[in-house]
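Form P-L/3: holo structure prediction, ligand iron/sulfur cluster.
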Amino acid sequence: MIVDTHAHLTLDGLREDLPGVLGRARGAGVGAIITVGIDAADSRAAVELAQATDGVWATVGVHPHDVAELSDAALDDLAGLARADKVVAWGEIGLDFYRNRSPRELQRKWFREQLERAKQLALPVVIHDREAHAETLAVLRDAADSGLRGVFHCFSGDRALARKVLEMGFHLSVPGPVTYPKNDELRRVVAEMPLERLLLETDCPFLAPQPARGKRNEPAHLVHIAAAVAQVRGLEAADVARITTRASRDLFGVGEVAGARIAYPIRRSLYLNLTGRCTNRCSFCGKQRGPEVKGHDLYLEREPAVAEVLAAVDAEGGPAAWDEVVFCGFGEPLLRLPEVLEIARGLRSRGAKRIRVNTDGLASLVHGRDVTAELGAAVDAVSVSLNAPDAETYQRLCRPGVDGAYPALLEFVRRAREQITEVVVSVVTVPGLDLDACRRVARELGVPLRLREYNELG
Ligand code: SF4
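OUTPUT (holo model):
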């Protein structure tokens, strides 16, 4: 399922064709739509539509274009409406210094007032910011300090603005223009931001994506936006759907997400999550941001038994259905070496095409013996996290819980080369890390080096 987090189903062009619009959305996999209010009457229509329609939720708010006639009494009414069932946010609200359809002073006043109402109701906000980046940020910063959350809808800024919005704890939402050939800057934002804070939207009936450009937009076209994001991030559209649905769930409570996973697909690979334990405490570890990886919840209440892991693989179509099966997860898989070997044998007997282990390379040190031969008999490839060109840097970045980690890691790679068909080392491109020195270490070890992008905006 995928969530269109910003649509205007109540506006001309869509409301007279709603059965068709909703049917095509469902057919395209758009399982939830948030229809966004732009003034008092439209907010009421949005709430009524949401309450009458499965798979539709609503927001209430007054758009900066329409605040000239707004009053405290009207805002009180809106606050009452916001308590209704299926209202998930306050918005869209903000500043529009491009069209200036309402006086700027009034835009500022009612933006602040509406933020206050959202805070009182503990609702996230949907922000409209056009040609008013600095001022929108300044107003929001105070509100964000007191715990307000929300999304910059139709994000149109650059990476510098994206960084500030993300630092405030807000989400970014991208619409159809991410598919436009000339919109490289928006694609750069998408390329570098943490995907768990990205939302997808159509803003229909406006802003149709490239394949439908110039026509009326509708939620079914969200698939083109998901495909563009997938291409930018080197993922499958299904990955983007899952990740952004989780983000929508986190912010709005809209979208169905799976519980904790033992086997989890990314692209054409099936990953296995055996443990949350790790020998290291890397400064860049994704665990610090939460229990999720690419939209999968990897928090394990307990470590799964071998049979449970193999059953989880079978539930995903079996190992033969995937290009490779990868021991990875949210910890160091080789801390459970006996189980890894047994599971690998089970995968092999079920037709696995390729089995890989992602590891910190400290297994021989931790287990007190060279484990590479056992591993080589069970798997096709290992990817070892090198992450540093010397012991001192490794200590600082990876903070191992054992002595002698870096030389042990290098020795593991040397021995693995003799025992395992494919061995690569990887480095997370942490700012300031001497990548040339890392390349030299990989060359001396005689293995390829793979760079893993450190997300600058995340
Ligand atoms: S080795 Fe991997 S799982 Fe362990 S702390 Fe480092 S990044 Fe996290």
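COMMENT: The mean pLDDT is 96.
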